[in-house]
Structures are given as C-alpha cells and as structure tokens.
C-alpha cells in the first residue's frame, strides 16, 4: 500500500471527508485527493501532522502494516 493509499485509509477510518481532512492538514481537497491517488506527493509536514492528529508513528506511511 502506498503512503497516499494509507492516508486515504486513515481518513476513511476516522470518517473524515476530503474537505474536513484537508482543513486539518492545511491544504485543499484537490491536493489531498492527488496525494491519495498518487498523482502528487505529500510533504513531510502533512505526514507529521497526521502523526499528531491520529497518534500514529511516521513509519505507518512507509512500512507494510
């Protein structure tokens, strides 16, 4: 699973819309959608923000779970 797919899975597990999650990550829904589909690469800031919001380690995005 790619980091973008994991980002989408995390968003869906927390019942967040693209709009809600993008606000939390200080980006736009279009950009977030691009990250999730692998069309764009998220910044390390976005992943670090997720670790704070969802109490997970950064390795969540880069290792097989």
Automatic annotation (TrEMBL):
HTH cro/C1-type domain ranges (all copies): 7-61
Top-level lineage group: Bacteria
A Pfam family reported for this protein in Swiss-Prot or TrEMBL: HTH_3
Protein known as: Helix-turn-helix domain-containing protein
Entries under CDD domains matching the protein: HTH_XRE
SUPFAM superfamilies named in the record: lambda repressor-like DNA-binding domains
Taxonomic lineage from the root: Bacteria, Bacillati, Bacillota, Bacilli, Bacillales
Record InterPro entries: Cro/C1-type_HTH, Lambda_DNA-bd_dom_sf
